[in-house]
Amino acid sequence: MADYIYTLETRLTPDQQKAVTLVLDTAKAAGMNLYLTGGAIRDIITGFPIRDLDFTVQGNALKLQKDLERAGAVVGGADAETRSLLLTLPGGVRVEIGMARSERYDKPGKAPQMAPATIIEDLRRRDFTVNAMALSLNEGSRGLLMDPFNGVADIEAKVIRVLHNYAFLEDPSRMIRATRFSTRFHWPLEERTQARYESGKENNYIEHIRSSSIGHEIEQLAYEDDAHGVLKAYEKEGWLKVLNPRWSVAKVDTAGLGGLMKTRQQMNELGYTPEVAPAVLHFLTERLGDKDISDLRRAIPRKDLVEAWKDLDSNAHSLAKRLSGKEAATPSRTWQLLSSARPEMILFLAITARKQAVTQKIKNFFTKWRQVQQKIPLPEMTELRITPQMPTYPKIANDVFLLLLDGKLRSRTETLKFLKPLAPPPPPPPPPPSAKRGRGAKAAAVAAVVAPPAVAIGKPGAKGKGKVAAAPAAPVVPIKDKFAAATKPAVPAKPVAAAKALPAKPAVPAKPVAVAKALPAKPAVAAKVSKPTKAPAIKKPSKPAKPTKPAAKAKAKAGAKKKRK
Ligand code: CTP
After folding, report:
1. Which of 400, 405, 411 is nearest to 499 (CA)?
2. Which of 273, 298, 357, 554 is the most buried (most CB within 10 A)?
């Protein structure tokens, strides 16, 4: 039997996993059973990206709202009729939590009678077999897949199949959805489903579509990877005018949409994951009139998406203005400005900026300036004991990067000259052997000389968490000597004070995470360096230091030898 929990855990992003835990804990605390349902299960099985998480609870999902908000959820919409919540959880995870319900259609085209129900009954009200599965997340049945219509088989066969003959008649939005899923997955409609679909088109079932379904389908378009392709399919099938009578493929800014997707891909490769849905809607409706755009916005149930769409232009305008002003007068300042801007805004501006200078700065941010990281002398920094374990490391790394970016450190020598005063003091010399008489003490002293204690000069690549790098066979040139020509005799300066002496305007102390993002490649290498030992205070050694390990070993050996004699 397939281990769906394992698949779930491996397929979800860390933020999605946290979202599952949060919703599960919240539902549990409220005494409700929770199931992962719909598209998420389909995507887990197929291997397609999991775009959002649909949960179904046995109980009123609206009761979970306050607890989820306290945990950082943003409520994008709440539907009193279906007792469901539309949420955005930390990390931008889109979630819908609905009440398990049955739906009874007394008259085609009219809203169904809804009633709280079991999860199996809930699956019976759904659109297609591949969407009518639920995974239990509850104790006792965790990992159990409920698949009453054999959706797994249809996933394997790659077909879209309705659950029964009246599916399109009862909910005509399923015809739009069939087109959408068929276009996205390149799966055909199963033969009988296709026949019902054609009949539905002929008999104009679509005129009975509910306005809430129209809003839902407009919203779903925003999250399609190939929204343009889906829109074309909608136009061909006659569905686009259902969503808005004046909408057509000709109203799309095709170049803008294409640029958006391409730049998003490039940003993804650099580790950014901007939410593109608001911008997708922007480009899809670029040439529609204001009234039609307002109608579309009103119809969309997820209000946080609508707000983000509305704000795009003004946010991009203000970022463009800042990028044209003093705040972005130098590469380092521009870097800092763009590093603190929301990725969504940079992405949108990259496509829509009118000024060449603004576009160029964004381009540099994503390409040329990143290569400057390679000039950071990581091996030398490690030798100087400037390692990620230092609390001031992120700031030092960031400062060096910014100075390099502005051309204020023009060579390796200059960079090392800047770094040297920021190095922490060297570790203390090896403690003297304890004053002992006899052969054992002598042997220990000899051993201490032959095998000097491990030193904390981390070498890139030295492995072992918390371990100290073994002393190299060839003596390491003392750092003091190595840079003596370039710098003054080493006065162990306080890192903070030294940083103040920066030639440029001191950089805003970056958070470690920000730096890690800003400098993704190299610091990662440096992070492998073994942890340096904490340097004990040199001035007042309170007790005689313990013998080092090699010394202790030698002592033991010598003791054993003595015994044998
Ligand atoms: N659903 C349905 N009929 C509808 C709308 C939704 O049966 N008219 C059910 C389906 O089970 C669907 C789930 O609600 O899987 C969630 O709907 P939606 O988010 O629109 O689609 P997903 O299947 O999640 O697909 P995706 O988010 O990948 O587009």
Report:
1. 400
2. 554
**In this structure, which amino acid lies at residue 427?**
P
**301 CB under 6 A from ligand 1?**
no
C-alpha dist (Å) from residue 472 to 28, 49, 379, 400, 477 = 56, 48, 15, 28, 11
CB of 220 within 6 A of ligand 1: the answer is yes
Characterize 353-364 residue by residue with b for buried, 16 or more Cβ atoms within 10 angstroms of its Cβ, and e for exposed: beeeebbebbeb
Distances (CA, A) of 476 to 390, 448, 472: 22, 17, 7
Could you tell me the distance, in angstroms and rounded to a whole number, from the CA of residue 129 to the centre of ligand 1? 11
- The model's pLDDT over 312-360, given as tens digits with 9 standing for 90+, comes to 999 999 999 999 999 999 999 999 999 999 999 999 999 999 999 999 9
Closest Cα to atom 22 of ligand 1: 39
Distance set, CA 169 to CA 114, 122, 197, 379, 494 (Å):
17, 19, 9, 69, 76
Is the pLDDT at 498 greater than 60? The verdict is no
- Cβ of 84 less than 6 Å from ligand 1: no
Our answer on whether the CB atom of 56 is closer than 6 Å to any ligand 1 atom is: no
228-235 long-range contacts (CB < 8 A, ≥24 apart) are 228/252, 228/254, 228/257, 228/258, 228/284, 229/183, 230/179, 230/180, 230/183, 230/184, 231/284, 233/179, 233/180, 233/182, 233/183, 234/176, 234/179, 234/180
**pTM, rounded to two decimals:** 0.76
Q: CB count, 10 Å around CB of 270?
A: 13
| Residue 234, both tokens | 């909608």
Q: For residue 95, which of 77, 83, 82, 80 has the smallest C-alpha distance? A: 77
Cα distance between residue 62 and residue 69, in whole Å = 11
Beta bridge partners, 57, equal 34, 99
Tokens representing residue 346 in the block: 């940079």
Contact assessment for residue 440 and residue 555, using Cβ atoms and an 8 Å cutoff: yes
d(CA 401, CA 393): 12
Q: Pick from 336, 321, 476, 318: which is nearest to 395 by CA?
A: 336
